[in-house]
Structure to design on (203 residues):
């Protein structure tokens, strides 16, 4: 490798990625700036949707229902029936999960504008004219909260056997499902966050 390339490589290693990120999101090129914010928003919605679908599937299978949606009026009651009062709260109505849910609702149903419920919570989101701007910090917070919730589910499965009771045909093994989804969520969330950040750095 020539000395020129070695010099370039050395300079790149000394680059502060946080400085580059701040430069990108504060650029006067508003089209690029909003593309970066949109990338973060998609990452956030995808991460929460993975968790959302996971909970719905467990509740549906445990209650032996052919069809089930999160929009059910008894969704939280059903969660507590499946996981128990304490774990059910951690899974869906804990303070941190509640904040994540309202951020997701604001992004999905309000075009990103912060809703009234979220205004009353300690969301720590970056706002521009009351519109939420998702940052890597928010993605990390999402991943951490989901990880804690999934760990509570796996613990419930192992300790209380509320999820892994054998079915007659042994079709479902919830302990395996819990471990696998915990890994899946961790891997997916990490890749989403990395993808969003790397896209900005490489563009």
């Amino acid at each position: 490798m020539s000395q020129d390339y070695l010099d370039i490589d050395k300079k790149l290693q000394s680059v502060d990625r946080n400085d580059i990120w701040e430069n990108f999101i504060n650029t006067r090129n508003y089209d690029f700036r909003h593309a970066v914010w949109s990338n973060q928003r998609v990452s956030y919605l995808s991460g929460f949707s993975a968790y959302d679908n996971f909970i719905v599937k467990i509740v549906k299978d445990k209650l032996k229902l052919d069809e089930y949606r999160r929009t059910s009026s008894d969704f939280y009651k059903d969660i507590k029936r499946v996981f128990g009062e304490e774990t059910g709260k951690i899974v869906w109505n804990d303070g941190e999960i509640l904040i994540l849910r309202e951020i997701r609702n604001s992004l999905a149903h309000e075009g990103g504008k912060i809703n009234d419920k979220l205004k009353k919570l300690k969301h720590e989101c970056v706002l521009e004219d009351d519109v939420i701007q998702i940052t890597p910090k928010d993605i990390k917070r999402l991943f951490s909260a989901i990880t804690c919730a999934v760990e509570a589910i796996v613990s419930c499965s192992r300790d209380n056997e509320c999820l892994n009771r054998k079915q007659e045909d042994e079709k479902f093994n919830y302990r395996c499902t819990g471990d696998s989804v915990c890994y899946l969520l961790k891997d997916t969330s990490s890749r989403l966050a990395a993808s969003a950040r790397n896209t900005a750095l490489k563009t």
